[in-house]
Amino acid sequence: MEFCEKCGGIIIVQEKKAACTKCKAKLKKIPKIELSEKVEKKESIPVIKEGSETIEPIITMDCPKCENKKAYFWTLQTRATDEAETKFYKCTKCGYTWRKYR
Questions:
Q1: Which domain holds residue 21?
Q2: Do residue 27 and residue 62 come from a single domain?
Q3: Which of 6, 20, 38, 86 is 20 to 30 A from 12 via CA?
Q4: What's the structural domain count of the chain?
Q5: Distance between the two ends of the chain, CA-based, in angstroms?
Q6: Residues 61 and 53 sit within 8 Å (Cβ to Cβ)
Q7: Does residue 68 belong to any structural domain of this protein?
Q8: Could you say which of 15, 34, 37, 82 is catalytic?
Q9: Which of 5, 56, 62, 83 is catalytic?
Q10: Which one has a higher pLDDT value, 22 or 1?
C-alpha cells in the first residue's frame, strides 16, 4: 500500500493513473508495488506404507480365524457421539481384521 507524501492519504492506481484518495492529488509517477513473502521450509511428515510397519499396540486377543493369541488394536467412533466407540483388531499372524462394539 502506498501513501501520499503531501497528506498521508492512500494512493489508488486505476487504469495506469494514480491519485490520492484524501487530497485528490494526481501523481505523475505510478508507484511500483512490490510484494514479498518469507516461506519457511517445513519438516516432512513420514508416511508409513501399509504392510511395512504398524504403529498400533499389540494385545493378547484370540484371532477367530487362526486362533493366534496376539492382535493389533485401534478404536474409531463409527456411530453417534453419545454411543461407545468401536474397537478394531487385526491378527499379527494372518492379518484377519474384526471388530467389537462396546
A1: 1-31
A2: no
A3: 38
A4: 2
A5: 60
A6: no
A7: yes
A8: 82
A9: 83
A10: 22
Residue 19 lies in a domain: yes
Is 51 inside a domain boundary? no
CA torsion angle 42 53 60 92 (round to 10) = 150
Could you read off the pLDDT of 38-86 as tens digits, one per residue? 888 888 776 666 555 556 789 999 999 998 999 998 888 888 888 888 8
pLDDT value, residue 50: 58
- Is 64 among the domain residues? yes
Active site residue 56: no
Q: Classify residue 54 by its DSSP letter.
A: -
Cell triple for residue 76?
474409531
Q: What is the pLDDT of residue 46?
A: 66
- Return the pLDDT at 77: 85
The CATH number of the domain holding residue 81 is: 2.20.25.10
Task: Report the Cα 21 to chain-centroid distance in Å.
Answer: 41
So what's the pLDDT on residue 53? 59
Please name the residue that has the C-alpha cell 485528490: 24
- Known catalytic residue: 2? no
Neighbours of 58 (CB within 10 A): 12
